[in-house]
Amino acid sequence: MKRSIVTTKDGSKTIRLEEWNEHYHSTHGAVQESMHVYIRAGLDHFLTKYQADEISVLEAGFGTGLNALLAQEWSEKTKTHIHYTGVEAFPISEEERHALDYSKVMPAANAKDIFYQLHEARWEEVVPLTEHFKLTKHQLFFAEMEMKNVADVVFYDAFGPRVQPELWEVPVFQKFYEALKPGGVFVTYCVKGTAKRAMQSIGFEVDIIEGPPGKRHMMRASKPC
Ligand SMILES: C[S@@+](CC[C@H](N)C(=O)[O-])C[C@H]1O[C@@H](n2cnc3c(N)ncnc32)[C@H](O)[C@@H]1O
Known about the structure:
The chain is of the alpha/beta class and 225 residues long. Helix content is 32%, strand content 29%. Helix 1 packs across helix 2 (66-78), helix 2 crosses helix 4 (111-120) and helix 5 packs across helix 6 (193-202).
């Protein structure tokens, strides 16, 4: 499918799938959305709730690596160890990675180097990147995952239900429910009623909370302890 790089309203870039008219991030602001949905509503929330020294993050759709880059920066800022696992069926190309150039909109001086390392890291291996951050990337379809009780926080960042409805239904949600530890947190930008009900039917406790700029709401769910 043809992909192009576009600039979002906060100045950060994202990828657009031409045929689907679908973007990897919100066109209101890619970095802004990731910070709100995954870093603040996911990591800050988990840290406040559990005061954990180490957090295991599982991302559905590693894609551009933006969420991983922001999580790495957060791990150094909060001195919290993160083991970040990214699942991705269709990795982006080297050319796309260069064109995205997130280091331009990130405050950290080493952002360019970290972004490079996130993409260069070998697949299917645990790769320590910095003092507080290690990464494992799996090239897999979500439906192929077999993880059980390993994740504290799930970043669910699949394409929307308009273009991939099957990723917002019970069988795939079940995979992530099983991957979460009891008490684990699941965050996503999507608040579609059918997705919410599918999650509740598996056992998730679902909250609809304030969304990022340009979007009224987002969803945060947890697996009961
Ligand atoms: C909305 S994009 C977000 C990617 C990433 N979180 C980011 O910040 O760039 C969704 C990602 O899910 C991947 N994807 C789509 N269907 C998938 C599937 N069935 N299994 C695994 N990955 C999938 C896409 O290739 C894409 O990278």
